[in-house]
Give the backbone structure.
Amino acid sequence: MVDPHVFVILGGTGDLAARKLLPSLYRITDNGSAYPVILAVGSRPNSDDGYQRWAATALVRAGIGADDAATWARQHLLYEQVARDAASFAGLRKRIEQVESDRGLPGNRAFYLALPPAAFAPNIDNLRDCGLNDGPGWTRLVVEKPIGTDLESARSLNETVRGAFAESQVYRIDHYLGKETVQNLLNFRFTNPMFESLWNRDRIESVEIVVAEDLGIGSRAGYYDKSGALRDMVQNHLTQLLALIAMEPPNSFDAERIRNEKVKVVEAIAPIQLENVVFGQYGPGSINGEAVVGYCEEEGVAPDSTTPTFVGIKTYVNTWRWEGVPFVLRTGKRLPKRLTQIALTFREPALCFFHGVPDGCEVANNMLLITLQPDEGFSLGFNVKSPDTDTKLDAQALRFSYSDVYRRLPDAYQTLLLDVMKGDQTLFVRADEVEASWKLYQPLLDHHPAPHIYAAGTWGPAELEQGIALCGSEWMGR
Ligand SMILES: NC(=O)c1ccc[n+]([C@@H]2O[C@H](COP(=O)([O-])OP(=O)(O)OC[C@H]3O[C@@H](n4cnc5c(N)ncnc54)[C@H](OP(=O)(O)O)[C@@H]3O)[C@@H](O)[C@H]2O)c1
């Protein structure tokens, strides 16, 4: 059971609060996992009542019934107006203490920075200056992505955090880690020795990770044009997936031990060679039969922007387990479909008796496909003899799909928020891991190749397939 506490959302009037945090908090209390008092903070004048009405509307938009939403908002939500200056944080402290006293709470507090990144550091300083970094019970700080925009800014943010909070109080969000299937990577690997015994350079020829989006940038040009695919997806989400695939088994399922193993992987990734990188930018094309404009024609994007909307990278993990095995990361916008998938291609049979037999014989490499979205599950490809032929082989697959067995998977934010309340840091990114990751990609931020234009609705620039991708794109979405 979770300790009683006050859950403070700094930026409780924003888009993230409306679309993700409030619906997740609703579900957490609805299924009885925890009952925090939620105190939303914003600089706009509003009352508890007014905020509850605003929040109820947001919950209805998230699919929750109007009566349930209104009742829940009245029961759980409070609002505090706090101007964007240090002095007004004293008022926030008073309000929290008042709420704790009124409700007989022991002084446990979580502070969620649901704020624009530029506001993270000043708000952390304000929390420290008014003494809210430490309280009568536990105090936890949740930091949203992005953690910096490069190595220097990530270090600086970590420094600010360290100036106010101990690492054991800090929860850095990478919402990918909250996805059920991403968490399941650990379970899959470390509870199925059948796979773990093959999980190495002797048996695996290559690993490919794709995070594809069919959407363009929508109304996020202001953010995206400064960010691009490397910052937006590779430095965080794809690197997290790589770390979970490549890490050594921890000695226990303890958060620190798991995080230690992940950091070791990120530190062991070989410096990325420019010839192993393809940057791309979507041009006009069509998605699902609908014509779409190119990136530079999107509203808010300069016609000569060179921001990459696609990155393909081949790299290596220099550990005993993975030496020489290429890891290919691929992510992009306006690709044919929304898909997050990991492909582990196993080596060919040591000796193939069937080559050169009349009739021909294609021995497909065994392939394990792990799909993280949209159709979560696994598929293991293997060869079978095609009936009525002497030697012809067919590639078939054993499949497991979550949707066939389980009803609804919890939303990533629901999982992560509950973990914050429980004090479990396993699915949160530690400061050293964030910095190791930025360190790896910083040279590409400093000098990245010009993006190749790819037609929207394709799997990215042809240069990727010709140069660094190993298995083409036929496996994707299988
Ligand atoms: N939106 C998403 O789906 C999403 C997804 C993943 C990650 N994130 C991350 O989550 C964070 C919040 O995103 P968001 O989309 O909710 O942002 P947002 O809507 O732009 O801002 C959230 C709130 O922050 C307050 N705010 C704005 N500037 C501030 C400042 N300088 N100082 C203090 N408060 C300020 C505003 O509240 P008042 O006007 O009431 O003060 C605003 O309602 C960002 O770091 C973003 O990168 C968002």
